[in-house]
Amino acid sequence: MSTPTPSNPTLVHALRGGISESAHRGALAVVDADGTVHTQWGDITRPIFPRSAIKVLQALPLVASGAAERWQLSDEELALACASHGGEARHAQTAAAMLAKAGVDADALECGAHWPYHDGAIKAMAASGQTPTALHNNCSGKHAGFVCLGCWMSDSAAEGEDRRAFLRGYIRPDHPVMREVSAALQATTGYDLARTAMGTDGCSIPTYAVPLQHLAHAFARVGTGVGLKPEHQRAATRLRAAVAAAPFMVAGSGRFDSRVMERLGARVFCKVGAEGVYCAALPELGLGVAIKMDDGNNARAAEVVMAAVIEAFVTLDDLDATFMRSLSDLQMKNWNGIEVGQLRADDRLRSS
Hints:
By secondary structure, the chain is of the alpha+beta class. The protein has 14 helices and twelve strands. Strand 11 and strand 12 (339-345) form a beta hairpin.
């Protein structure tokens, strides 16, 4: 894979004392459902690893297969399947409930365990002497979705198939569950995964390098249904509705994705990924968005860019506009609560 293009423009400025202290470069694609590029900043053809930004694409087989209906998964559970959550109690409990509906428990998860990202959740667990399990992994909802899909597939397989044996190793690229997930990614992006780089994501599943242009196109398709096969179209509609109904599950308390979707509802579906990746669907406009920051910065850069893009494209009333501007022109404070600077999206982003 090639290195980031040096000519990628500055998308975010870090200001202190009235001057630019740092700058964050990156690339941005806004594409419609027919594949037409509406807006391009930087190199949008270089394959990048989208990481967790594409969880909604990876969740399509869960719904399209009939597994979500078979296990009667709720809005909160389907939203969690698209989530990078903070490991709060509701997140862990919901992941456990998904597994229970499919007749398994947390031992079936192959994402690994880590302490919650949410500070309050860590302190509460530590105070009560708890240790983290795979349910607290920020990807446990996605993996619970994979397990639910695998349980449905094993029940549909030849008589006598052992469910646990079938599920084992579902994170491998050649496992039937992961083949379904990868097929959905290829179908929505229109990008040949067999001819691109493959790595291993933080939660142990394969991650494939896909250009921003194709990622944005996939999210435009998810937002509109245009260009998707019927079962994926239905699944995308169901998942977007679930996330709009339960945005807390996608991230959690104080997190950008949950805050924005709680505020703007079904007008925006946005999802962060590691290493400075962000994707979004703007369904009313028929547009998809994909962002990659060259330095891999999320909170200091990718979130600020996504906020500015939403400002530029989504019709906002005064209160919503003020809310989004607080995210695209972000105050930085020190430990005494004194404002010391700003993270500011490049002004040109808001006029894209």
